[in-house]
Amino acid sequence: MEAKGIAVDRLKIESKIRRLVEEFGVQLAEAERTVGNELAREHSLPSPGARAQEREIHGLSAGEWVTVQGKVVALTSPPTPAIAQAGILADSSGAIRFTVWARAKALPLSAGKWYRLESAVVDEFRGVEKLNIHSGTIITEVENGTPLIPKVIPVRDLRPGVGSVRVKVVQEWEPSHERMLQTGLLGDETGAIKFTIWREEGKEKLIPGTVYSIYYALVDEFNGRLQLNLSTAICIPEEGDIRVLEGEAAQGVIVHLAPGSGLIKRCPVEGCNRVLSRQNYCPVHEIQKDFRYDLRIKGVLDDGIRTRNILVQKEIVEALSAMKLDEAVALAESSPLGMDEVFYRIRDAVLGRYFQVRGSEIDGRILVKECRKIAFDPAELAGLLNKAGGESR
Amino acid sequence: MMNGRKATGPRPGQTFDREPARRVFAGELREVKLQFREGEDEKSPSFVLLPTGARCNRIFLVGTLTEKERRGDQNVFYHARISDPTGTFFLMAGSYQPEAMQQIARIEPPAFVAVIGKPNLFESQTGSILLSVRAESMTAVDRETRDLWVLDTARATLQRLEELGETEESKRAEEHYHTDPTIYRKMVYDALAQLKI
Question: Containing domain of residue A78, as a range?
Answer without folding.
Answer: 54-142
